[in-house]
Fold:
Amino acid sequence: MRDAVISRDRTPLAGLPAGARVGTGSPRRAAQLLDAFPRLQIVQIRGNVQTRIDTIAAGRVDAVILAAAGLGRLDLLSQATQLLDPSLMVPAPGQAALAVECRSDDEAVVSMLSALEDPDTRAAVTAERALLTALEAGCSAPVGALAERYGADLVLRVAAGGPPVVRHVASGSVAAPADLGRAAADHLLNTSAGLTAREGGPAGTHYASSGVGS
Structure:
């Protein structure tokens, strides 16, 4: 569920010089990147995975940030310069999770699909989605959320708004993941980060035109 960096000459983020341009179309990634590396410049890019990677060779950016899971599914993960630790770049809610949708009244299909069910993934995604719902935040909001199980506990790591990004870690019972997500949202809504998340854009983030997409 991590994010990955692909850069020119395989230079990690910490080694990029001041003013280096990093491409992303995600307000979440932009906010967290500028929070950790304020010397860097964000360039908004659009397109499929390969199109975004190609902006490096085209000279529009020095690096791009993409979901590691997406790179892996396209057999492109070997191009990654580094995988970002969730303590630095909290991934998007539900990132890397796969779901199969079916009619709730089709008992035969529901029974067949139950073999694919992963309880830990369901608990994690339930907590992350409950957080988003309580924040009234959409997919373009600068909100990162990652829930992980530790025994009977579920730990939810959140990064919202920014820069500056407000980070919060909450824990609760793995049996009540939605309650955990709502509790974390209540905490954020008592800070400016909660309001920023609802607005759907990272405050203080400046996008430079790259000529790619809108």
